[in-house]
Amino acid sequence: MAVLVTGGAGYIGSHMVLDLLEAGEEVVVVDNLSTGFRRAVPQEAAFVEGDVGDGALIARLMADYGVDAVIHFAGSIVVPDSVADPLGYYLNNTVNSRTLIAEAVRARVPHFIFSSTAAVYGIAREMPVGEDAPLQPISPYGTSKLMTEWMLRDTAIAHPLSYVALRYFNVAGADPKGRTGQSTPRATHLIKVACEAALGKRPGLEIYGRDYDTSDGTCIRDYIHVSDLIRAHGDALRHLRAGGDSAVLNCGYGHGASVLEVLDAVERAAGCTLDKRDAPRRPGDAPELIAGADRIREVLGWTPIHDDLDGIVSSALAWERKL
Ligand SMILES: NC(=O)c1ccc[n+]([C@@H]2O[C@H](COP(=O)([O-])OP(=O)(O)OC[C@H]3O[C@@H](n4cnc5c(N)ncnc54)[C@H](O)[C@@H]3O)[C@@H](O)[C@H]2O)c1
């Protein structure tokens, strides 16, 4: 019995692989290394360089390893790129996910966990945003993920497959033991970018809009430590294996931090003053995005243990120093 982790050489997937190995699971990773790194996957996991859209490869892995669960991280994740290349995003995030789900059905793999995103909500009217809020993605990225959620929903009705789709809010931080972290070049995530700036890897950074209707005028996001996010996947796997129902769950803390609060935390952790420049608002940026975070606690019994902005930032900075 093994867990197939797609995208296990990437930022979040590499944390998942470490966690599964620590729990004594057999792990097989499939990753095409488009944005991931071979070195991020420990030797104890089987690694196959290949594409999730390669149905024959996926079928072989499921049969050879006796896969009982798929955890599907592989995908393309840069929202503005999805606007420039919508068909590329629908291919990699939607069409390739369809292939993976079809092979799971064919091989009678009973459980599936999917990396979805808060981008499925678009500009939510009410905060915090609960799972039952209207689904109105404003980017091809968000739509490509929502379509995969819907494929899973319909497949789970027609076939013996149970699934959990986790809608991540803003994932940040790194493994507290320093074994992996976010290595992606050209990353757009605020904490990553600010850590790069603090270490002189980029000249400074922009603050996109200071005139939002928030406490300090900058955007507020729900930053979740990657280790807490991974624990939610472990909880989801236990839930499904115990016969639990399929579920779609937000993954966030239920409170947020503003851009300025994040930058203050980075300056505190790094002991420096960042070169910050004011820039206009970016189209599509909501003033605030906070997870309604009750359902995941009720359904999975998830209890976060890293809900602390300074801790998130320190772990991200420690990883950035190693790169
Ligand atoms: N980082 C976040 O804040 C965030 C927020 C919401 C959702 N997500 C989702 O989490 C997942 C993981 O994101 P991440 O931040 O670790 O990104 P990442 O780019 O670090 O990881 C993605 C991995 O998937 C691999 N990959 C991409 N397409 C593939 C394919 N067709 N076949 C095989 N491998 C492929 C890449 O090489 C990479 O290793 C993604 O599905 C993303 O949409 C991330």
Automatic annotation (TrEMBL):
Keywords: Carbohydrate metabolism, Isomerase, NAD. Residues 3-252 form the NAD-dependent epimerase/dehydratase domain. Its EC number is 5.1.3.2. Its cofactor is NAD(+). InterPro entries: Epimerase_deHydtase, NAD(P)-bd_dom_sf, UDP_G4E. It is an enzyme of class 5 (isomerase). Pathway: Carbohydrate metabolism; galactose metabolism. One of its GO terms (biological process) is galactose catabolic process via UDP-galactose, Leloir pathway. GO terms for molecular function: UDP-glucose 4-epimerase activity. It catalyses: UDP-alpha-D-glucose = UDP-alpha-D-galactose. Belongs to the NAD(P)-dependent epimerase/dehydratase family. Homodimer. This is UDP-glucose 4-epimerase.
